[in-house]
Description:
The termini are far apart. It is globular, with a radius of gyration of 18 Å. It has 143 residues and is α/β, with parallel strands linked by helices. Helix 1 runs parallel beside helix 2, helix 2 runs parallel beside helix 3 and helix 3 crosses helix 4. Strands 1-2-3-4-5 form a 5-stranded mixed beta sheet, with helices on one face. The model has no long low-confidence stretch (mean pLDDT 90). Helices cover 34% and strands 9% of the residues. It has 4 helices and 5 strands.
Amino acid sequence: LNLNFNQLRSDCVMELGECQELRSLYLSNNNLDNQAMINMTRLCGMGCFKKLEVLCLFSNGVSDLGQAMECVSSLPALTDVALEGNECSSKPGYRQSIVRSAKCLRVLDGENVSELDIELLQMGEEEKAKSSTTMPAVPKLKI
């Protein structure tokens, strides 16, 4: 379904919940913001968008990376997502965060998810696990 360039607002996303068989959704260059991500996540929780493989939200007003991550993680069949042109895509760790959130993702912003993306993600998670289990050394105080 191509709804690019329609000046849609975030509340319009709720109307798409009835499209149960939707596999591709193009919503680029609209007026969608963080509320669109919340609405889409909410609809996924109600069983909508189970078959959605492609989601294109290029050049909207999505600024909250956490909301974007929650949204893509709620789409079980998602293999291709475009968020470039939104403020959230310029945040540090954007690519790794979205790749981590969408388990089946193969394409992000028009670029294939590479082996390097996966390796960097795994290395980051290993480092995170090490740092959470290792207590830093406490310096001895001289009295």
